[in-house]
Structure formats: C-alpha cells, structure tokens
C-alpha cells in the first residue's frame, strides 16, 4: 500500500545538498555510541523448559535493571518463550538455549509461557 | 504500488504506509492484509484512492524473514488493478533489548505488473528504541529510513526516499495508542519544496490477541492527516495479521 500521487512535482536544483545531509544523518544515527554499549552489567538468570514445564516457575529479578535471561529448552521439541507483559517472544529450538533481554522492569509480576504448550509451560518473573 | 497513471515519478510507487519492525519471528508463518484509502478534494486523484496488499511471510531463520506480497490499487473513481508482486525481507541485526537501539535491515524487490511502470528495489535501516517504565509507562519508537530505485524498462534515475515513524505507548496488549508519521521524497537529488512532497501524521491503535497455541492476531488502524498539499487531505489505513509458529 502506498502514498499515491505526487502532484505538481517539479525538481529543484538543491538536491545534492539534501542527499548529503540525509546520508550523514543516517550514518550519525547508526553510529551512535550507545549502539555499541553491550549490557555487560546486566544480571543473568536462567530458565529451563523440561517436559513442557518451566523450571523454576517463579524467577526473582531486580527491578530497574536490564536482565539477561537464558532460556534453555531441555526438550527435543521446539518451544517459544512468550510474554505480552515483557514484550518478548522468541523460539527456542529443541535442546538449545537462547538469550532474551528484558527490562528494565518496574516492581511487579510479569507472566510468561511457552507458545507451543501454554497450558503446562507457564511461569512468572517477580521484579523487586 | 500507487496509481501509476498519476505518478509523476516512478519512485513514488513504493512508499508503503506501514512501519516495519526490526525483529524477526522465527518459524512464524504469517498472513497479512493491509489497506489504505485516501481522501482529498472532489476531483482530486487522491480522493477515494485505494490500495490493498495481501501477503504471506515466514521467519526462515532467527535473523531473517521473507514475505511475498500482492498489491492492488486504484485512483479515485477507478477500478482496482493488480499492480505489483513484492518480495520483502527483514534482517534482524540485534537482539531486542540488548543494545541501546534495536536494529534491522529492510530489503525489497517489487516486480511491476503494469505496462509502462518500472519495477523497483528498496532498502534501508529499521531503528527501534524501547523505553521501559519512563514516567510509569512503557513505549516503543520505530523509525524506517528507506531508499528506493527503479530497475528495468521505464526506470527513472531517481532515488526515492521514504520515512516512517511510529511511537506507541504500551498500555495493554489488546490495545495501545500511538502516533505515526510518513513521508516520501520521490527523488532526493531533486527534492523540491516541502509542499510538493508527501508527509502525513496521525493517531494509530495497535494490538494483538494471543490464541496460543493456535496463533496470534495483530492489528493496526490509523488515521492520517496530510501535512502538505501533495499529501491529500487525510487517509485511513489498516493492517490485520495472523501468525502461527511452527
């Protein structure tokens, strides 16, 4: 779906200046120093899926900090870590591990589940 | 593709009114419908112009998703015509939340099915910033900066530039309000005055309902106000997506 019509379009001669500015702006944005700041100090926590259940069911994490969550799928079938409250969804292939970055979280309780087995594989994160 | 008969430059043909996200839903099969109707003064080709697209996509790898799209459009008072088949790729460059920005790369090839209308390439970065618990709210801000270029017969030498910005306050998974900006410069080397470019802004509602394990339904509906004479008076757009992970 698109914008439709450019009416009365007439090229001007100041184009190259604008082109240069656009390219410069894009490069500046992408090379922003914060882009490369890896969350080295993020607390690491892990979660294991076994027999389509999360272990542990409750994870306690510090509030106000970014969290590096390692999700280990010990089952041979794929799983998907999903949480609308954490704004994350990520497939974890069978017998593999993925990393999900969440937060910083306000104090509270955040539900998550396995999209493939939502009735058995459920848990929550408690941020304090 | 827009109503090519009215396009004064072919680069205008590929400015989608949709904000692409930088993340890939690995192993997710998705079906998407989107539509756009524009409104303008009576007699204007933008009045009641329509365009629709239907697509199917798949998250092939954790960092790559591909989508095939069919596009139909018509000018005001005209019949819809099938205008293009588009192959769209999203490359996820960063893990969501890992860095200050979430980054993705968009690359698209659009094969025109209209006589006299060129095919085109478009590509560019997708930049996203999530803000959690700022003044008590979570929000997400996404920017698309795309360049486009015609290829093949009837191609112009113009390099088009389009931007799309969406900021959404994450109030509830089912419904979150936001604001969107869209813009198109058909030829960045000859950008012309702002009045002759297309820029639109307006509110949007986004949401998703999860029917796990039977998939997820996502929607977006927005109303846009034209900021320049070339943009038309207003437009309504919508997007409906069903995705299921295999």
Textual characterization of the structure:
- The complex is a heterodimer of chains A (128) and B (246).
- Chain A has one helix at 15-30; strands at residues 44-50, 53-55, 58-61, 67-73, 79-83, 88-92, 97-102, 108-114, 122-127.
- The longest helix of chain A has 16 residues, at 15-30.
- In chain A, strands 3-9-8-5-6 form a five-stranded mixed beta sheet, with no helix packed on it. A four-stranded mixed beta sheet of chain A has the order 2-1-4-7, with no helix packed on it.
- In chain A, 12% of the residues lie in helices and 39% in strands.
- Chain A has a domain at 44-127: Cupredoxins -  blue copper proteins (Immunoglobulin-like), CATH 2.60.40.
- Chain B is mainly beta and 246 residues long.
- In chain B, strand 5 and strand 6 (119-134) form a beta hairpin.
- Chain B is built from no helices and twelve strands.
- In chain B, strands 1-2-3-4-5-6-7-8-9-10-11-12 form a twelve-stranded antiparallel barrel.
- Chain B has one domain: monomeric porin ompg (Porin, Beta Barrel), CATH 2.40.160.40.
- Chain B is globular, with a radius of gyration of 18 Å.
- At the A-B interface, helix 1, strand 6 and strand 7 of A face strand 1, strand 2, strand 6, strand 7 and strand 10 of B.
